[in-house]
């Protein structure tokens, strides 16, 4: 041992004896022991803690003051003191009457003047109250964790068997008892054990039907009032002999019973059995069981409601409507097959999720109104915009009903949603068709009148240029401007009449390849040098006639391709590449991409053999937010005076008349492809497998 440690721990024996009177009055236990561990001096406080007197303890070995369970640990600490000079520890002390208490010890070696070990000094403090407070706090924490764990289990699952089984296991572990059961009453006040946690060597009662002839309506009323039964010893307790006999069948020596209530309805009992010996149940144990029983009552109520809803749902799974139940926090409790079909989420994926995360409702204000109205009035109906699993937007007609518990308190919301997306789309198309029909009739009348006005203006302009060939340059420019303006007005009238379908021209066999070549020749003259034309068009002499001829009005088709080329030019103000191509297209499956735009539907009516003409540019592209509007009459993104907004609607009408359809592929800042599908004038008699 180091010299300084020896000096530190050296206590003068004569000084200690001189102070023995003062030490005897100390509150803390103080004692001196010889090298063999026997007491030489013990003050009053030390002896009082042990339940003895100072005189009686002199000569006693210190091991007799330590509980047997802690004796080995105390001996190990004593040996450590011999090495280090001092040691501190907490052990169970043993009183002379055999009872135990908690004590904190500090043992310090004592040496003589030659620094030889002559014994040690022991300072003792009774820490029983502190230990009890610590134990009580620990039990409270464990009890809180237990209740929280059961509450969490209730929130995470509606599987009642799983909840009950977990609860009895946790309660038995906490109480350190032999058996915990949940007993459910039947209408005749007999019942069945629904859940059990039991020690391995005891009789198992799970699923056992138990008939208690002692249990009468009086007992039911007793428990219905929330009262508990705590029996410390069934042999000495004042209970019916038949009840004692029943408990003895299951080796019970003490039991604690609390009711499981649902309002005033007595659902069952939560019971703790102690079988190894009698047991005095402390108030904390009773409080724990009462808290657990309250949580179980809530879990049972929710599970039974869920089971009832599930049974009803089996009848409504054949419905096309989406039907689901959610709690007041938006968490989904039930999800029908109709909901799976509409939204794409399976029941396993949806249950436990919140409707806000799952359906991504896009109208929070309307949603808040729906929730508040349902909670206040019990019902709400209206339309909501939602999203499916694939991200597709849907519109639903929604009906909400408030579900209440037995006490009349709001418990959950039942929501029934009908997909009206297609209905809305058809209604929009119908209204649009009506609007276009009215607009067409108006435009047709105005166009005829304008045509009648423009015809003499154009004729006179041309006549004046013929009769005034010797006019000065300014006059010639003015007459030329007059003629061009009149012609432009006539062309606009023709375009309006075409859009309004007020002019019917003869349809013939049209060679698409030859027609497109003519369009390219015209367009090339009006394109700036910054735009390059590329084409992928088979030469007419190398093409098969059946693969390039369509039945349509050639002038109208010419107008379609001119409109598409002009739009492509305008989409490339700083230059780019304009590509025109012709290809065969066999469509065996009439389902196309949903980006296809048609005159009558999103997909073609029938499969067939088509000529595909593609007009592509590398321009600005079409933003998704206006892609659905570009076919609206008079809608244009061009500057005033640069476009009428009738080019694409007119082109779509012409393509429709020819039995074809139009598909758009566009990406902002990457370019646009306009794909025109025109049915062959002489289709193949049999389509190959594609």
- Total beta-strand segments: 24
Main beta sheet, described? 6 strands, antiparallel
Q: What is CATH's topology name of the largest domain?
A: Heat Shock Protein 90
Structural class: alpha+beta
Report the CATH superfamily of the largest domain. Histidine kinase-like ATPase, C-terminal domain
Model regions low in confidence, pLDDT < 50 over at least 5 residues: 1-11, 592-604
Radius of gyration (CA) equals 48 Å
Question: Into how many domains do the coordinates divide?
Answer: 5
Strand content: 25-35%
The order of strands across the largest sheet is 8-7-6-11-10-9
**Arithmetic mean pLDDT:** 81
Proportion of residues in helical segments:
40-55%
**From the coordinates shown, what is the CATH architecture of the largest domain?**
2-Layer Sandwich
Number of discrete helical segments: 21
Protein name: histidine kinase
Domain Histidine kinase: 445-682
Domain PAC: 87-139, 380-432
Family: In the N-terminal section; belongs to the phytochrome family.
Architecture overview:
The protein is of the alpha+beta class and 690 residues long. The protein has 5 domains: 124 residues, Beta-Lactamase (2-Layer Sandwich), CATH 3.30.450.20; 163 residues, Beta-Lactamase; 103 residues, Beta-Lactamase (2-Layer Sandwich), CATH 3.30.450; 75 residues; 172 residues, 2-Layer Sandwich (Heat Shock Protein 90). Helix content is 42%, strand content 25%. It has 21 helices and 24 strands. It has a 6-stranded antiparallel beta sheet with strand order 8-7-6-11-10-9. It has a 6-stranded mixed beta sheet with strand order 18-20-22-24-23-21. Strands 2-1-5-4-3 form a 5-stranded antiparallel beta sheet, with helices on both faces. Strand 1 and strand 2 form a beta hairpin. Helix 8 runs antiparallel to helix 11. The longest helix is centred in the middle third of the chain and has 47 residues. It is elongated. The N terminus is likely disordered.
């Amino acid at each position: 041992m180091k010299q300084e440690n020896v000096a530190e721990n050296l206590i003068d024996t004569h000084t200690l004896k001189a102070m023995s009177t003062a030490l005897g009055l100390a509150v803390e236990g103080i004692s001196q022991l010889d090298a063999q561990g026997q007491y030489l001096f013990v003050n009053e406080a030390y002896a009082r803690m042990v339940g003895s007197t100072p005189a009686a303890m002199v000569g006693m070995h210190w091991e007799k003051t330590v509980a047997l369970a802690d004796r080995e640990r105390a001996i190990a600490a004593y040996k450590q003191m011999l090495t280090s000079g001092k040691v501190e520890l907490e052990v169970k002390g043993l009183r002379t009457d055999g009872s135990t208490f908690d004590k904190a010890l500090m043992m310090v070696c004592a040496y003589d003047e030659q620094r030889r070990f002559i014994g040690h000094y022991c300072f003792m403090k009774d820490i029983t109250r502190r230990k009890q407070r610590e134990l009580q706090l620990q039990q409270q924490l464990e009890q809180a964790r237990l209740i929280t764990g059961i509450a969490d289990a209730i929130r995470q699952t509606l599987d009642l068997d799983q909840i009950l089984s977990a609860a009895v296991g946790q309660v038995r572990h906490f109480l350190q008892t032999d058996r915990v059961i949940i007993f459910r009453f039947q209408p005749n006040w007999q019942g069945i054990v629904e859940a059990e946690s039991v020690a391995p060597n005891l009789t198992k009662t799970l699923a056992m039907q138990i008939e208690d002839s002692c249990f009468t309506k009086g007992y039911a009323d007793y428990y219905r009032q929330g009262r508990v039964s705590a029996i410390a010893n069934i042999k000495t307790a004042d209970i019916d002999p038949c009840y004692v006999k029943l408990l003895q069948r299951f080796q019970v020596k003490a039991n604690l019973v609390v009711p499981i209530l649902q309002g005033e309805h007595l659902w069952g009992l939560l019971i703790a059995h102690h079988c190894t010996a009698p047991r005095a149940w402390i108030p904390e144990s009773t409080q724990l069981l009462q808290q657990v029983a309250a949580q179980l009552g809530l879990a049972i109520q929710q599970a039974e409601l869920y089971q009832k809803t599930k049974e009803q749902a089996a009848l409504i799974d054949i419905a096309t409507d989406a039907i689901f139940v959610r709690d007041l926090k938006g968490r989904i409790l039930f999800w029908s097959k109709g909901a799976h079909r509409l939204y794409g989420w399976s029941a396993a994926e949806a249950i436990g999720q919140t409707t806000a995360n799952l359906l991504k409702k896009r109208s929070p204000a309307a949603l808040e109104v729906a929730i508040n109205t349902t909670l206040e009035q019990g019902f709400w109906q209206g339309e909501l915009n939602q999203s499916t699993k694939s991200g597709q937007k849907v519109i639903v007609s929604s009906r909400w009903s408030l579900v209440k518990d037995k006490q009349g308190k709001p418990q959950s919301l039942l929501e029934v949603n009908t997909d009206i997306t297609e209905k809305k789309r058809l209604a929009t198309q119908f209204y649009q068709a009506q609007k276009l029909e009215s607009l067409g009739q108006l435009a047709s009348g105005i166009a005829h009148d304008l045509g009648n006005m423009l015809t003499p203006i154009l004729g006179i302009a041309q006549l004046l240029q013929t009769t005034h060939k010797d006019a000065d340059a300014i006059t010639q420019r003015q007459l030329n401007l007059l003629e061009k303006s009149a012609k432009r007005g006539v062309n606009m009238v023709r375009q309006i009449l075409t859009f309004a379908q007020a002019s019917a021209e003869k349809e013939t066999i049209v060679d698409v390849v030859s027609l497109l070549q003519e369009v390219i020749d015209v367009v090339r003259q009006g394109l700036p040098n910054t735009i390059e034309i590329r084409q992928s068009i088979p030469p007419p002499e190398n093409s098969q006639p059946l693969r390039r001829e369509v039945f349509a009005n050639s002038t109208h088709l010419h107008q379609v391709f001119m409109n598409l080329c002009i739009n492509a030019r305008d989409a490339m103000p700083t230059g780019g590449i304009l590509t025109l191509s012709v290809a065969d297209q066999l469509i065996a499956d009439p389902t196309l991409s949903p980006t296809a735009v048609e005159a009558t539907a999103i997909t073609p009516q029938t499969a067939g053999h088509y000529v595909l003409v593609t007009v592509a540019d590398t321009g600005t592209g079409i933003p998704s937010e206006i892609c659905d509007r570009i076919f609206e009459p008079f809608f244009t993104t061009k500057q005033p005076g640069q476009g009428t907004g009738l080019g694409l609607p007119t082109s779509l009408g012409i393509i429709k008349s020819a039995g074809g359809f139009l598909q758009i592929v566009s990406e902002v800042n990457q370019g646009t492809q306009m794909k025109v599908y025109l049915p062959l004038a002489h289709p193949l008699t049999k389509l190959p497998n594609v």
